[in-house]
Amino acid sequence: MSTLRSVAVAAVVALIFVVLSAPPAQAFQGEISFVIGALVGGDFEALISADDVSLTANFKNAPLYGARLGWFGYPLGIEGSLVYSPSGLSGSLQESFLTIDTRVIYLEANVVLIILPGPISPYITGGLGLHSFDFRANVGQIDQTFSLGDINKLGYNLGAGLKFNLSRISFRAEVRDHFSKLKVDDFLFNPAIGEILGIEFDQTIHNLEISGSVGIRF
Question: Count of alpha carbons within 13 Å of 52, Cβ hemisphere only?
Answer without folding.
Answer: 1
